[in-house]
Amino acid sequence: MVTPTTETSAPNRKAEHIALTQKAQVKELGPRSHGLDYEPLFGRHPLNPRQTVEQKLGVTILGKRLKAPIWISSMTGGTPEAQKINQLLARVAGEYGLGMGLGSCRPYLHNPKQYAADFEVRSIMGDEAILFANLGIAQIEELLQDRATEKIESMIHALKADGLIVHLNPLQEWFQPEGDVIKRPALETLQELLEKVKVPVMVKEVGQGMGPRSLKALLEMPLVAIDFAAFGGTNFSYLELLRQGTNELGQEMSHFEDLACVGHDAQSMVKFFRKIQSENGHRDQLSLVIVSGGIGSFLEGYRLTQELKRPAVYAYAKRFLDAASQGETLLRRFVEQEIHGLAVASEFLVASSGGEC
Ligand SMILES: Cc1cc2nc3c(=O)[nH]c(=O)nc-3n(C[C@H](O)[C@H](O)[C@H](O)COP(=O)(O)O)c2cc1C
Question: pTM (2 decimals)?
């Protein structure tokens, strides 16, 4: 870390070095740079981390700039606590130029007045920040069936959102006692939606990720972005399983545990993505890929987004929830630490060349 040193602090420093040498053995910690080449010859210390990150890792989507490759994943609104957290996240997203997805806007769709404070965060974020509304595939299916897709466009307009996230969660809905029944394959629902609405659409899972066939099908659609929401972090199927001992048929939910634990982690999804892209010069219309679901640190996010070799950001839900729950100061500190870590990584670490120079 770049901090001013004085001659008088040198003896202390030397003494600390000797005292801490024993603890500073890293053999058991292991290297954390798997997938990244450490190249100490070509970078410099970032004196202005925010500027470095914006220049090197910023992404433009829909004419707006994400100043850091960080996205705040969708989290439900509709409770007083969630409202406070959403407003806090929106403020910090606006301040640091991060993207943000709202949690499922289903309550707002049906009752905008009652839920205005949970979802209307545009004035807090500012016009420059990127904000997406969110609905589940089951609500989209229902709106299509009722020929009411204009409600989606009105909602996006009312929220001043830049687009719509559709979350695919068939397993979560199946496990949820109050869950919706999905009557059509999501592929058909999405295709029809994209024909009917004019707003930019992004698709995500909610913590299982998805396999190569689904990913390829999404890449063939006119979507603005895909968010992995991969397996490895928060898992809503498992969470729903924990909420009930038996289902309405008297079956033990623990019997279905294996089903809650299927899916694909973010690393596997990056591999699928790259393979699909390399096959037959595959072209897609995406402006952005969001790597998310169990991302453990800025370095993992940096590595996975670099591996994609296209405009990409990483996202957290739980880690942002934890940071925001501790209040504004600690949330800001968390974001600043992420940005500072990314700035250093961007100077000295590059996606692995596999030993090529
Ligand atoms: C409290 C909470 C509420 C969530 N609500 C939604 C939601 O309404 N819509 C959605 O698409 N995803 C929702 N998610 C899923 C997240 O957006 C994210 O995909 C998932 O948690 C995996 O990311 P993580 O491992 O960083 O937590 C929610 C997650 C959390 C933790």
Answer: 0.95
